[in-house]
User: Fold Methylthioribose-1-phosphate isomerase from Streptomyces aurantiacus.
Amino acid sequence: MADQYAQFSEDNRPGEIPAIRWDEPPEGPVLVLLDQTRLPAEEVELVCTDASALVEAIRSLAVRGAPLLGIAGAYGVALAAVRGFDVDGAAASLAGARPTAVNLSYGVRRAQQAHLAVLRAGGDQEQAAGAALAAARALHREDAEASGRMAVHGLALLDELLPGGNHRVLTHCNTGALVSGGEGTAFAVALAAHRAGRLRRLWVDETRPLLQGARLTSYEAARAGMAYTLLTDNAAGSLFSAGEVDAVLVGADRIAADGSVANKVGSYPLAVLARYHHVPFIVVAPLTTVDPDTPNGASIEVEQRASHEVTEITAPLVPVAGGEAGGAIPLAPLGTQAYNPAFDVTPPELVTAIVTEEGVVSPVTVEALAELCDRSRQV
Ligand code: MRU
Assistant:
C-alpha cells in the first residue's frame, strides 16, 4: 500500500488539479468536481448535470471546504438557470445542503440575485442564466485573488510573531487548493512560508472522522514538496508539550460578528492547547466567511453528521487505490451511536489573529472585525 502511495504522489506531483470547473460539452453545460472522497487513492471527476447532483456531492463531501462550497453553490445556481430548471428551488436546496459554512449561502445568493436582477430589468431567461454564470465565475476569480492576498498577509504575520523564520506550523483539516479558487486559506500561508524557505515543518492533524488532514492536506503538502508530518488528532497535546509547535494555522467555516470561529471539529481543543503553551492560534479566512448576521458563537448552527462516519470506515475512505465503494469496516459494535459534530466553535479570546484578504484583525474584537468588513465594502 505504501508503494502505491509513493507511486501515486510521484506521478501526480506536477501540474494543477482544479477542484471545480465549468464545462460545456456538446451534451450541455456541466459542473465538474474532483471527487474529494476518493483522494488520495484516485483522482476521479464527478460530473454534475443538475443542482440535485451537486447537493448530493456537497452532503457527501465530494466537494467541501467553505470557500469552495461558496463557489460550488454559485455554479449550481448557474447550472439550474442555464439548463432551464427551477432556479429558486435549486438555490434553496443548495443553500440548505450544509448549514455551517456561510460561504455556501453567500455564493448561492450571489448567483441567484444576479439572475433575478436581469429578469427584473426585462432580460430573458438566457440573459439571466448568463448573469448567474458570470456571478459564479466572478466569485471563483475573486476567491483565487483573496487566497493570494491572505497568503501575503499571513506570512507577514508569521514573520512578525516568530522572528527568525524556520516555522513549525500545526494545521487541522484541509485548507489548500482543494477548498478554493486559488491556493487556499491557512494552507496557502504555510505554502508561502515554504516557498520563502521559512517553513521547517507542517504538522498535519489527521482530522477524524473523515480524515481531511490525512487524505487531503498530506496530498497537497506532498505535491508541493513541503516537509510535513502527519499526526493523530490526539497526539497534538504531546507535540505542544515537547515544544515542537510555533504556530497553529486553521481556516474557518463561519466567523460570527464577535470573532467566534466555527471550523472543523478539533480546532477548539487546539486553540486551548495553543493558549496554554503560549503559541499563536491564527485563523485564515476570506471575508466571505465572516457573517455579520451571526452575532456570536452560540448562534452558529453546527452541522451534526451521521454516526456511521465514526462507527465504521467506508470505502472509498478506505485508502486503497481502486477500492470498491460500499465496503464498510466496523470500528464499534453494531448499533453504537456516535456524537459527530462536523465543527466546533472557538471563542474570540483564544484567537490570536484573523487573517483576511483585506488585512489582519488582532486582537479579535467585534469593533475591529466590523471595521475591516466596512473598509472592504468601501473599496
Ligand atoms: O467538513 P469540511 O471538510 O467541509 O470542513 C472544512 C473545514 O472545516 C475547513 O477547515 C474550513 O472549511 C476552512 S477551508 C478554507
